[in-house]
Amino acid sequence: MRKAIVVGGGIGGLSAAIGLHGIGWEVTVLERAPELTAAGAGISLWPNALRSLETLGIHLGKLREQASGGLHDRAGRRITRWDAEAFRRHHGRPLAAIHRADLVDALRDALPAGCVRTGTEVTGLDDLDADVIVAADGIHSALRKQLWPRHPEPVYSGSTAFRAVTALPHAADLSTSWDDGAEIGVIPLHDGRVYWWASYVTEPGIRHEDPKAYLRSRFGGWHEPIPELIEATAPEALLHHDLYLLGTPLPSYVRGRVALLGDAAHAMPPFLGQGGCQAIEDAVVFAAALSDTEDVDAALKSYDEQRRPRSQAVAKASVQAGKLGPQLRNPLAVAVRNGVARLLPGALTARAGAGVSGWIPPVPRRPAPPRTR
């Protein structure tokens, strides 16, 4: 049986391990954290990710399919309407959301016991012995740095973000709200809680002694339920991260028998909601490529040829979406953008992003069951 080592127990690494296990490989996942956990935030699963998870055999029971919502300005005036049924028609699946912890739990439970080794930090390749090594160790990947030591480090996107999951005494609708250089998103989850985030343009590294008080002063004048969400969120539930990306695309996702996957390969800003989705795509393509041939080198070459152009194009589009959307600060440009967006018919806005989310994953070939006499 061929062996693979996956470095990194995040969404991409676990998905890759599931794909490899499904095609008959022996897989070990090495995760440096003492336990498999996920930050207390949600994740949007676009149709391309849902199809990929289904292809891997993962059927999530804690998904919340998003109902109709819209894009607003800070006062709550509608910029565009988002129609859930029209979205489903054009994209083939709904837009869904799940708590990251629930997704990580589902992925971990799909793997054999003992497959994941936590508390194991990998800083280099010398001690790893396998037919294939998957580097899924995140945006600041140590393995990427070892393989491409002269490649530029990740760069700051220009925005920082707060994220949290909290409960409200009433239902909240899907919404995104923009102001000059700022964005707040609200996504309902399956259990009645709400995943929300706030991003805004600022210098990197700025932190606040009382983050909740800062958010109250910065966004307390926005439309409901934004002030209510801030008030309902426990201070310890707030996550604050500067948003970085791999600004210079890699020349390859493969070197030798090592394949990069997820943020290690193509870290992107979150303005299209595709970071985790692209990592799941990577995983299913990786498994499919290895299932198609006994030639591992040929399979890795195929993986790179399939994934690098698409994921790098999505990363580039994510940067552009930020510049034209929540990072746009010129008041005149903001007014023009919002005015043009208000004139767009709902049928057109429902199709936005279909070129990305309409992607159909390849199906890995499962090994034939043993013959019985």
CATH architecture: 3-Layer(bba) Sandwich
Number of helices, counting only DSSP H or I runs of 4 residues or more: 13
| Annotated CATH homologous superfamily | FAD/NAD(P)-binding domain
Provide the spatial order of strands within the biggest beta sheet: 6-5-11-12-13-10-14
Outline the biggest β-sheet.
7 strands, mixed
User: CATH top level?
Assistant: Alpha Beta
The mean pLDDT is 94
Number of domains: 1
Tags for this model:
single chain; 373 residues; alpha/beta; FAD/NAD(P)-binding domain; seven-stranded mixed sheet; six-stranded mixed sheet; 13 helices; 22% strand; globular
Describe the structure.
The protein is of the alpha/beta class and 373 residues long. The chain has 13 helices and 16 strands. It has a single domain (3-156, 245-357), classed as FAD/NAD(P)-binding domain (3-Layer(bba) Sandwich). Helix content is 36%, strand content 22%. A seven-stranded mixed beta sheet has the order 6-5-11-12-13-10-14. It has a six-stranded mixed beta sheet with strand order 8-2-1-9-16-15. Strand 1 (3-7), helix 1 and strand 2 form a beta-alpha-beta unit. The longest helix has 29 residues, at 296-324. It is globular and about 65 Å long. The model has no long low-confidence stretch (mean pLDDT 94).
Explain the layout of strands and helices.
Elements: E1 3-7, H1 11-22, E2 26-30, E3 42-45, H2 47-55, E4 64-65, E5 69-73, E6 78-82, H3 84-91, E7 96-99, H4 100-109, E8 116-117, E9 132-135, H5 142-147, E10 155-167, E11 175-179, E12 182-188, E13 193-201, H6 211-219, H7 226-232, E14 239-245, E15 254-255, E16 258-260, H8 263-266, H9 275-291, H10 296-324, H11 331-343, H12 346-351, H13 354-357
Parallel strand pairs: 1-2, 1-9, 2-8, 5-11, 9-16
Antiparallel strand pairs: 3-7, 4-7, 5-6, 10-13, 10-14, 11-12, 12-13, 15-16
Helix pairs in contact: 1-4, 1-9, 2-9, 6-7, 9-10
